[in-house]
Amino acid sequence: MIVEKLKLTAELNEQEYKKVGEIVEKLRGKFPNVMVRQYKTQKKLTFLDVELAERLNFDIILGKRKGYFVSVEMEGTKAKYAFQIMKAILDEAGISYSLTLDGNKVYDSLRRKLKESTLLEFL
Predict the structure, then answer these.
(1) I need a surface site. Which of 27, 55, 58, 121 has the fewest CB within 10 A?
(2) What is the pTM of this model?
(3) What is the pLDDT of residues 33-64, one digit of tens each?
(4) Which of 57, 79, 70, 85 has the alpha carbon at shortest distance from 22?
């Protein structure tokens, strides 16, 4: 399996948001190819052709809707690195988080549905 597009979002309080904002500005200063777009409720920083372990393109979005948030968005076959970028930002800001990727309920439900349809066809 290949992850081709991924967007991770962490909800923050105001203090955490300020810390993350400082870290993102520090990152912005470290890399030359950064495009910044300011919208009504968010600021999107696009990092182009950044040399980390590989050449990467990714977006970091800072904003406020119902509450403050930070998102990391990546497309293409290197989208798997979005987890590590988000983790590095949150770790640097001292924000605790839990990475929950448990979809067992959906998986189990889908398997049951598939078995139901085959049993009905069998009868």
Answers:
(1) 121
(2) 0.82
(3) 899 999 999 999 999 988 888 889 999 999 99
(4) 70
